[in-house]
Design a protein that fits this description.
Elements lengths: L12 H19 L3 H26 L1 E9 L2 E6 L3 E6 L13 E7 L2 E6 L1 H4 L12 E6 L4 E6 L1 E9 L13 H4 L1 E4 L5 E3 L1 H6 L11
């Protein structure tokens, strides 16, 4: 068997270089957008940038609240004022305090007063069930707890869906009312509650 013959034909490097340049130009032509395509991309980017402020505005149109029930009524309070929720345990009554002050609790070494908003609002107490939750409200200058029968969870409500008031909501409750939803969820104004000096417990307990 004879050995295979080698192909000694010289490589034309100038031809190879020309072919590579032709291929490069063809690829650039394939991926380069036309003037119309470039204009369309720029317009889409402009529309996206214009939508960003609108999205920020829509976020401000909602309020995040913690919903809870008390005496079969549904309440809510802005979550920005809620520090935490914990079970109501070892409540110590306080003498010489207003009736709406249920007592104090020791929360990890911190003494907190606990308020019954039904009594604070002078509302009928019928329907009260086992008060087993405390919602801790906090501002820069005040902190206290309000009782609840149950916690409904955190939700976001459209501000446009909140009515300023209802004819049946009069007196002290209206003063601390942020609004009422179509589902008759009473949204309390936590800022006013936390700024009310009547809720400061002055009693000193040994």
């Amino acid at each position: 068997m004879s050995a295979p013959q080698k192909n000694n034909k010289a490589i034309d490097w100038s031809e190879v270089k020309q072919r590579l340049e032709t291929a490069r130009i063809a690829i650039e032509h394939i991926w380069a957008p036309t003037a119309g395509e470039t204009k369309q991309v720029l317009e889409e980017r402009a529309r996206a940038l214009a939508r960003e402020p609108a999205q920020a505005e829509s976020a401000d149109e909602r309020i995040e609240v913690l919903e809870f029930t008390l005496a079969h009524e549904r309440y809510a309070i802005a979550s920005e004022h809620v520090r935490e929720v914990y079970p109501l345990e070892e409540l110590t009554p306080l003498p010489c305090t207003p009736s709406f002050v249920l007592g104090i609790v020791n929360l990890r070494g911190e003494i907190l007063s606990v308020i019954d908003i039904k009594k604070f609002f002078d509302l009928p107490e019928k329907g009260l069930t086992d008060l087993n939750k405390v919602i801790v409200l906090e501002s820069e200058h005040m902190v206290f707890g309000i009782v609840a029968d149950a916690i409904g969870g955190v939700r976001r409500i459209l501000r446009a869906d909140i009515q300023p008031s209802l004819p049946t909501l009069i007196g002290i409750r209206e003063d601390y009312l942020q609004g009422v939803t179509a589902e008759r969820v009473v949204i309390l104004d936590a800022g006013k509650l936390l700024a009310d000096e009547k809720l400061i417990v002055q009693e000193q307990v040994e």
